[in-house]
Specification:
- Helices cover 70% and strands 2% of the residues.
- The protein contains 17 helices and two strands.
- A two-stranded parallel ribbon has the order 1-2.
- Helix 1 runs antiparallel to helix 4 and helix 9 runs antiparallel to helix 10.
- The two termini are 27 Å apart.
């Protein structure tokens, strides 16, 4: 009964949020939405500079349901799936109460709720990540290689949709080493298997998605991929986004972005490594301490302004936004 209540809470809160907070699809969310619509409508002359795989996959959904509401439904289902995985992870470790608490915390977590109404990769990729970990642990408990293979497939799909999720891949490796009374040789074979399945899945998906295209489609993600690396290694800016690096990055010719970007990284990381290491504490403190991103993006209208945005609640929107930002920090 408690689990069913939590699932209803996950779904109900998010449906209510979408009904009351008509978030506009702007910024990156708007780009994904509009690019996917253009692909779905087979409109020529398109440049995609970020999350090309996600955008092209989304366009397949938009061929049948050409509206951002389709992605909102996906987000709600992914949120419910994530809650189930969290609960089940606790249950298989004989900590069912902890699993229920984790699922409940996800149900009421403001940043996760707010992203439901946007066309984003965050919610879906988080679900695929936790699902792959769950399948991996189940494969160890039940000694079933099929679950291990499925774990690699799911994580391959996760990486395909959001490349940054690769940083979590070591979690799968380390989980395998937590096995008790298991020979090292067996663990290495398991790692080789899941790595092979992961790479094969990514290769197949990348091959298939090439069929999703329009005339004069250009995909160049180099500048977007280099952007966080260049900004993140700027010691003077404490590894945060800054106008100087952004201006420099966008002044480079497209064909020179990778070469010039790696030259900057080499200079910053190898010429002054201690300076970079010295800002890591501040950098991660800033990343982990600020959870107000969704408060900034959820309350935006078509003009990208939050001052003129209106929710469907009677309370003043700016006051709601401020309270929501405060709740997001806890």
């Amino acid at each position: 009964l408690i689990l069913i209540t939590i699932f209803l809470l996950v779904v109900g809160i998010r449906i209510y949020w979408i009904a009351m907070v008509p978030t506009a699809q702007v910024s990156d969310f708007g780009r994904f939405h509009n690019w996917a619509l253009q692909l779905a409508n087979n409109e020529p002359d398109l440049l995609i500079d970020r999350y090309a795989n996600f955008t092209r996959t989304l366009s397949l959904l938009y061929r049948f349901f050409p509206t951002h509401v389709a992605m909102e439904v996906v987000n709600i289902l992914a949120a419910a799936g994530t809650a189930f995985c969290l609960y089940f992870l606790g249950k298989i470790h004989q900590r069912e109460n902890i699993g229920l608490i984790a699922a409940f915390m996800l149900a009421v977590y403001p940043p996760h709720i707010a992203l439901t109404s946007t066309v984003n990769t965050d919610i879906l990729s988080a679900f695929l990540l936790i699902l792959s970990v769950l399948l991996l642990i189940l494969s160890l408990h039940k000694s079933k290689h099929a679950l291990l293979v499925l774990s690699g497939v799911i994580f391959g799909l996760c990486f395909f949709l959001r490349g940054a999720m690769l940083v979590y891949f070591p979690v799968l490796f380390f989980t395998l080493f937590l096995q008790k009374k298991q020979k090292t040789r067996t663990i290495l074979i398991q790692i080789a298997l899941i790595l092979t399945v992961f790479l094969s899945t990514v290769f197949v998906l990348n091959s298939l998605i090439e069929w999703v295209k329009v005339e004069d489609l250009v995909i160049d993600e180099s500048r977007y991929l280099m952007w966080p690396l260049v900004n993140g290694t700027n010691v003077d800016a404490l590894g945060r986004n800054n106008p100087e690096d952004t201006k420099m990055l966008f002044s480079w010719p497209p064909e020179e972005v990778n070469r010039l970007g790696f030259e900057v990284l080499k200079e910053r990381l190898f010429s002054h490594p201690l300076d970079f290491l010295g800002i890591l504490d501040d950098k991660f403190e800033h990343l982990l301490a600020d959870a107000t991103y969704s408060a900034e993006t959820a309350f935006l209208d078509e003009t990208h302004e939050y001052h003129t945005f209106q929710t469907r609640w009677n309370a003043p929107t700016l006051q709601v936004r401020e309270i929501f930002a405060q709740l997001s920090q806890y």
